[in-house]
């Protein structure tokens, strides 16, 4: 049981520290890819298909959606441009 805890804890800490210096766009892309890959693998495995293919497709789709979301968040944080 301790091994499983370490297998979860160590990568989580590494990703948490690695994401500290990323822009919102980069964070959105990485998060979206990770969530999409997990979701795609789960769906692929549960439906009787190939979990690896599901992870690749889900990761790609998640990266695109996460990138769009991250760009939107970055645009909202910028102060509005003054127009004269």
Q: Could you describe the 3D structure shown?
A:
The chain is mainly alpha-helical and 84 residues long. The protein has a domain at 22-77. The chain is 80% helix and 0% strand. Helix 2 (24-46) runs antiparallel to helix 3 (51-77).
What Rg, in angstroms, do the CA atoms define? 17 Å
Q: Which term fits the overall shape?
A: flat
Q: Uncertain regions: pLDDT < 50 for 5+ in a row? A: none
What is the total tally of β strands? 0
Largest sheet: none
Distance between the termini: 64 Å
Average residue-wise pLDDT: 82
Beta fraction = under 5%
Structural class: mainly alpha
DSSP helical segment count: 3
From N to C, what is the helix and strand string?
A: HHH
Classify the helix fraction into a percent range: over 70%
Fold topology:
Layout (H helix, E strand, L loop, with lengths): L1 H17 L5 H23 L4 H27 L7
Helix pairs in contact: 2-3
Task: Offer a few descriptive terms.
0% strand, single chain, 80% helix, 84 residues
Could you provide a short overview of the structure?
With 84 residues, the protein is mainly α. It contains 3 helices and no strands.
